[in-house]
Structures are given as C-alpha cells and as structure tokens.
Write a structure and sequence with these properties.
It contains eleven helices and nine strands. It is of the alpha/beta class and 265 residues long. The protein has a single domain (3-264), classed as Rossmann fold, CATH 3.40.50.150. A seven-stranded mixed β-sheet has the order 3-2-1-4-5-9-8. It has a two-stranded antiparallel sheet with strand order 6-7. The protein is globular, with a radius of gyration of 18 Å. The protein starts with a helix and ends with a strand.
C-alpha cells in the first residue's frame, strides 16, 4: 500500500469532498442503498467501527439512527471535516474519530465492537488484507458483522462504455493485478479491484459471507453523470431494477460496486 501518497491525495480533496459528492445523484442513490443494508443487518444501539470514514456522512447518519460510532480514516484532514460536520449537524457529538490507516486499526483504543463498516471503495486502496482481517476480527465481538462496499472488478457498464467510445485499452482496466491510478476529485489514487469471490477469500480465515448485493449493475457508474443527465427517466428505471435485483445470485456478482455482509467466525 502506498500509504503516504494515498494520505496526501485524500488530505488534498477533503475540503471539497462533500460538495462534489452532493452534486452527484447517482452517488447519493448508491449511498441510500448502503444505508438500508446497514439498518437491516446491524441492530439499533450497536457500536460500530467505521473504516475510511471520510467526511463523516455515514457516521452522522448512523449516530442519528441510534448507533455508537468510532470513525477512522487515513486522512487527518478528512477527520477534521468529519468532526466539523458532526458538530454542525448534531445536537450532541457522539462520534469518536481519529486518523488511522488500515494497517493501524489494531491500535484503536476501543474493542468489542458489534460491527465494522467500510463504504465506497476505501478498501480498494490496498491489495493485501491478511493483517486487516485479523485486526478487524480482534476488534469485534463474537459473531460481529463486517459490511464492506467494494469496487467490483466486473463492471459491465464500464466495459460497455469504453468499448463504445473506442477506448479499448480502458475496457478491462479493472483487471490489472498491479492496480491503476484512478482519478478521484482531481487527485490520483492507486486503486485495486476485486471480484466478490476474491474479496471473500481474502477475509475467509476470520469471516464467513452472510449476504452479497450488487450496487450499480444496470445504473451507469457515478463518474458517467452525463449519461444520467441525458437519459434521466431511463436511468431512474434502471435504478429501480437494481433495487429489485441487487441481492439475486449471479447478478450480485457484477456491478460498479458490491456490498458484502460478513460475520466473524
């Protein structure tokens, strides 16, 4: 993991991160589906350790729903924005937060969490999960949950888009074993992509899969916002189809992201 460059990139985009995301209706829709999964699988009142918490959008939502949150992120600047957002949006700030990289989770002071969550591909910044798997298991109570939202290696929309636009070298970019330098709000971040099977196998020593959902199978990825704007009624229909079919076998293996629910062994 290129920790220094990853931290630098996320520090650089922290101030404008929320404004960028709030302008993207596809991203907001995806986040709402992730929140539904959180609410379905994690009992109210649970203590949650959040990885790559960013500016705290999910943390604030979860606290408002009655959860106790310990938020972590590699970026000190993201944590600053998170705490500012929490102070501005919540009557009492019940969020604990600190800057922690994935390889530093073992040093989080608290233990016995009911669940760990990681949203929107933060875990795609690393390609070796052996230490993290053990560290998360150590932080969780028996039968604790781990819910991760991961960028999928198999994204039919992206493959189709790059073929149609004659960018053939980009069509299978997610399959590059050494990762790619992906663009994120103007910064470049080394990014790896995984199939649900690869991700499950990487955590199989400590976790078993409970449920898998696709996220953005029929819907164009958030970076193809122009397609949404030009074909809004059609894309909204695709979104509805995604909501209906996201948990179906085979279909849940593909998409821009996947949501995986795992339980500690």
């Amino acid at each position: 993991m290129d920790t220094a460059n990853t931290k630098s990139a996320f520090n650089a985009i922290a101030a404008g991160y929320d404004a960028h995301d709030n302008r993207n209706p596809v991203l907001q829709w995806m986040r709402s589906l992730v929140h539904e999964v959180y609410l379905k699988y994690i009992p109210k009142g649970s203590s949650i350790l959040e990885l790559n918490a960013g500016t705290g959008v999910d943390a604030v939502f979860l606290v408002e729903q009655g959860y106790n949150i310990y938020a972590t992120d590699i970026s000190e600047e993201m944590i600053k924005v998170l705490m500012s957002n929490a102070k501005a949006q919540m009557s009492n700030n019940d969020i604990k937060a600190e800057a922690r990289a994935f390889d530093d989770i073992s040093n989080v002071n608290e233990n016995n969490f009911d669940a760990v969550v990681s949203n929107f591909g933060g875990l795609n910044c690393i390609n070796d999960f052996s230490k993290l798997s053990g560290d998360l298991a150590a932080k969780l109570k028996p039968n604790g949950l781990f819910i991760a939202v991961v960028m999928n290696k198999i994204c039919p929309w992206e493959i189709f888009y790059y073929i149609v636009t004659l960018k053939f070298s980009e069509a299978l970019r997610r399959f590059k074993k050494k990762g790619i330098m992906a663009e994120l709000n103007g910064e470049k971040v080394l990014t790896y992509y995984f199939t649900p099977g690869e991700f499950t196998a990487a955590f199989s020593r400590n976790f078993t899969k409970v449920k898998l959902f696709s996220l953005g199978l029929n819907t164009p990825p958030p970076y193809l916002l122009g397609i949404y704007n030009r074909l809004k009624p059609l894309v909204k229909l695709w979104m509805k189809l995604d909501e209906i079919f996201m948990g179906l076998p085979i279909l849940n293996q593909m998409g821009d992201h996947f949501i995986i629910v795992m339980k500690k062994k």
